Amino acid sequence: MGMSEFYGERNDEESAATILRSLDLGVTFLDTADAYGIGDNEELIGKTIRERRDEVFLATSLPIFARRKSRTSGPSAASRSMSERLATLP
Prior knowledge:
Elements: H1 12-24, E1 29-31, H2 40-49, E2 57-59, H3 75-88
Helix pairs in contact: 1-2
């Protein structure tokens, strides 16, 4: 779910409202990645669901391209990336 890039002008307020409404309607699975908005999407989701975290199964993934810092492949890069992901998500 990319709400921070790719689909026109970014609107965090509208995106947050969409996420919350989806929870109201029974959505329980959210999937994101740092590829959406170079991590901004994960931060948006984290802030939005913080008070309703127990209602959501939240998935993220390893980067498909380099983020703000260069990185290599392999276990240490995967560990570093997941640590960064967990820091932005609730």
